[in-house]
Each structure stands twice: as C-alpha cells, then as structure tokens.
Amino acid sequence: MINITLKGGEIRQFEQGTTVAEVAKALGSGLYKAACCGEVDGETRDLRYPLERDCALSICTFEQEAGKRAGSQMLIANAVNMRTDVLISCGVLVGLFFTFVLEMPVLDTVTGLIVSVFILRSAVEIFLRSNVELMDGVDDPQIYNRIFDAVALVPEAGNPHRVRSRQIGGHYMIVLDVEVDGSMTVADAHEIAHRVEVCIRSAVENIYDIVVHVEPAGCCHEDEPFGIEPD
Predict the structure, then answer these.
(1) I need a surface site. Which of 7, 66, 92, 180 has the fewest CB within 10 A?
(2) Of the residues 23, 46, 61, which one is the last residue of a structural domain?
C-alpha cells in the first residue's frame, strides 16, 4: 500500500500502481467525471498515470487552468474545444427560441453565423498556440544561448554544435554534440558528458531529457542542415 496525500492534507491509502483516474473515482463519481488530469508532487500527469510510491496528489478539473500551469498545449487546446462545444449547444437553443417562440427564423441564421465566427477564432487560437510545438520548435529561442553558456562551464567539453531542442508537453528534449580529447578513455568522456548534462539542467528549467553525443576533438564533418551552432 502507498500513502496518497490529497489536497487539504488528508492521507488515503491505495494499492501500488493505482492510477490517478482510479483515485478520483474512489473520491467520488462527480470528481471522476470532471477530472481532466492530476498533479503528482507538483508534476502534471494524465489520468492513466500509475502511482508507484507515496506522493501528494491533486485532481484537476479545469483544463485551461491546469494546462497553463503545466505548459501543456494539449490541455489548453482541449479546453478551448470544450468551450466551443458549449457555444454550439447554446447557439442551437437560442436558434430554436428565435424560430419557434419569437417566430423570427432569420435570427437563427444570425446566431449560426456568430457561433461560426467563434469556432474560427478558436481554431486560429489553437493553431497560434501549438504550431511551434507541433513543428518541433521552441517558444524561447534564448534557450540555445543558455545551453552554450552551460557547456562553457565544462572546460574539457569543446565546440558544442548541432544543438537541437524541441518541446514535449511543456518540457524540453535537448540533443547536442561536444568534442573532447580523443585520447581519453570512454569512462572519462562519459564523465564529461554527464557534467555537461548537469550544467544544462541547472541553466534550463523543465527538461525532459538530454542526449550528449561525444566526438573526438578536431573530427571533421560535412556541413549538416540540422542543429544550431554557436555565434
């Protein structure tokens, strides 16, 4: 059994491997139906996430708020989609009222046009927010300068190049190449790569993973079209 500390300080015991959704269901059917995700020790997790150890858990019911806190474009987009569904349903009710109660069907058409404008606005809003992430880009290009500055803190690692960064649900996946003395052992090169990773994690927040590829100093490569080089 594991201890789950709920919002408000209450502690409940559950079987190891219980998912966030199962905890929400145990707390009440209303909460289970409204739940969109959970915060496990401050990290946003989806409802299928298994709880393997003692932790603090909050069940989130407002997708847009939870998405903004977690930096998750998926949650924000889904919240906008749900808002659009509500507008469509309300538009249908308003159109029926104009048509059958006021006997002014022309206003039903006007209502449909207004709802259509809101749908198009929502589509543009979702695209503008998510297109960078969908194209494997980053919303803060200064992250590359912070990566190069972090590598410079490890004097044995030289010529950082082919740096690639993309976002995964608000977290960064970083890949880069560095050069080291070609005569050193694999163990020493691994230690340098580890120090580079530690420095980057200290300089950049919300990192999902870092891959450091080590090359012998002076190794010549043909020009490659991918990755960022230092100025």
Answers:
(1) 7
(2) 61
Q: What tens digit of pLDDT does each residue of 130-170 get? A: 776 666 677 777 889 999 999 999 999 988 988 998 887 66
**What end-to-end distance do the CA atoms of the chain give, in Å?**
54
Tell me: do 31 and 72 sit in the same domain. no
Count how many domains the chain has. 3
Residues 128 and 86 in one domain: yes
Distances (CA, A) of 223 to 32, 79, 162, 182, 228: 54, 43, 10, 21, 12
Answer whether residue 226 is part of any domain.
no
The parent domain of residue 14 ranges over: 2-61
Q: Scan for tokens 């005569």, then name that residue.
A: 183
Q: What are phi and psi of 226, to 5 degrees?
A: -110, 145
Indicate the pTM of the whole model: 0.55
